[in-house]
Specification:
The protein is built from 14 helices and no strands.
């Protein structure tokens, strides 16, 4: 039997779809002041557009994953991409803040299912020994979105206006939906029991522990990241003020540097390092979770990540309103330390039984 080639082109399609969807999720971050001015709300209120999207994902991903379990994965991915495109158009034409709010809720409904489908998709295209490699390619789209998505959205928004930036994003999403139709093969996502095998409840699956640990680490790391990144545009503006003279000298003081360029450089380095988190955790999750637990594991990871995105945006709004922009870096570092402690505890605890399925 001829050796089956590694499906790099198909994995790159998934990576591209992931990039535009995650960039769409964070699009308001890069144009937050413009949106706030455009619909007549404060920047803190505009930041809640990030929170509502993420909380919608966190609350609905697992139940919607269960409801859509019987649908073919390829066409469910196409449907979620179509949902993304529609919600971006709604945001583009929204006459007021609450229509924008509703559009973000609809986007959150599509986003959770999208991740629950795409994360295991790569694992189902390759052999078990290639799962981490495949996941590293597909989640590279998310990594690039974390690093480039916000500045890309800001650049598009400032070039064509915040409303047209949503239209541009909708067009990119439609493009990748067409690529999914053309290039992705169908996959079988339902696990067939072997003769005499009894279905194992998820709560008794020995790989559930690693799923919980990875979700906890991701939640803490992302909570710190998004507490700061949601308000990165006003923070950067405040930091740049420090470069203009002594008058703004105290604005950016904190753990990321004394002021000015050191603070900016430290944040860029942190963002690049944080970009490793999605592919690493996704690959470990798909490798170590049992086959029958993969869809749940992907949904749980998405839930954790987006709960942290929403929680970070919410915490950030309180920090900005009550303590000021200079406190944001302290929260980023604090949550990162907690994530490291969880990882350390997991490394020190004795291992359970080997993975199954």
């Amino acid at each position: 039997m001829p050796r089956q080639p590694f499906p790099t082109p198909q994995l790159l399609v998934i990576a591209g779809a992931t990039f535009v969807c995650v960039s769409s999720e964070f699009l308001p971050t890069g144009i937050l002041p413009d949106i706030a001015a455009g619909v007549g709300v404060t920047e803190a209120q505009a930041g809640l557009l990030i929170s509502v999207f993420a909380f919608t994902v966190a609350l609905t991903t697992i139940p919607l994953t269960r409801l859509t379990h019987r649908f073919p994965r390829k066409w469910l991915m196409v449907a979620t991409l179509g949902g993304f495109a529609v919600t971006n158009v709604i945001c583009a034409i929204a006459p007021d803040y609450w229509t924008l709010f509703a559009g973000r809720v609809l986007g959150g409904l599509a986003h959770g299912v999208f991740w629950a489908v795409t994360a295991p998709y790569a694992a189902r295209l390759v052999k078990p020994s290639q799962v981490v490699r495949a996941a590293s390619i597909t989640t590279a789209g998310a990594t690039l979105a974390f690093i480039l998505g916000i500045p890309m959205g800001a650049a598009i928004g400032h070039a064509v206006g915040w409303r047209l930036s949503f239209v541009v994003m909708a067009g990119l999403i439609v493009l990748f939906a067409l690529l999914v139709v053309l290039f992705l093969p169908p996959v079988e996502h339902r696990v067939t029991l072997r003769t005499g095998e009894i279905a194992l409840p998820a709560r008794r699956d020995p790989t559930l522990r690693i799923v919980i640990v990875i979700c906890a680490i991701v939640a803490l790391a992302a909570l710190g990241q998004n507490t700061m990144s949601t308000y990165i545009v006003p923070w950067l503006i405040a930091v740049l003020v420090t470069l203009a003279g002594p008058a703004g000298g105290g604005v950016a003081r904190g753990p990321l540097g004394a002021a000015g360029w050191p603070a900016i450089a430290a944040y860029v380095l942190w963002s690049i390092a944080f970009g490793v988190v999605p592919p690493l955790t996704q690959g470990l999750m798909m490798r170590d979770a049992s086959a029958r637990l993969r869809d749940f594991a992907a949904a749980a990871l998405t839930t954790s990540f987006n709960a942290a995105i929403g929680g970070g945006a919410l915490i950030g709004s309180f920090v900005v309103a009550g303590l000021g922009l200079a406190w944001l870096p302290w929260f980023l570092v604090g949550f990162a330390v907690l994530a490291a402690l969880v990882l350390l505890v997991e490394m020190l605890l004795p291992r359970g039984r080997e993975r199954v399925g």
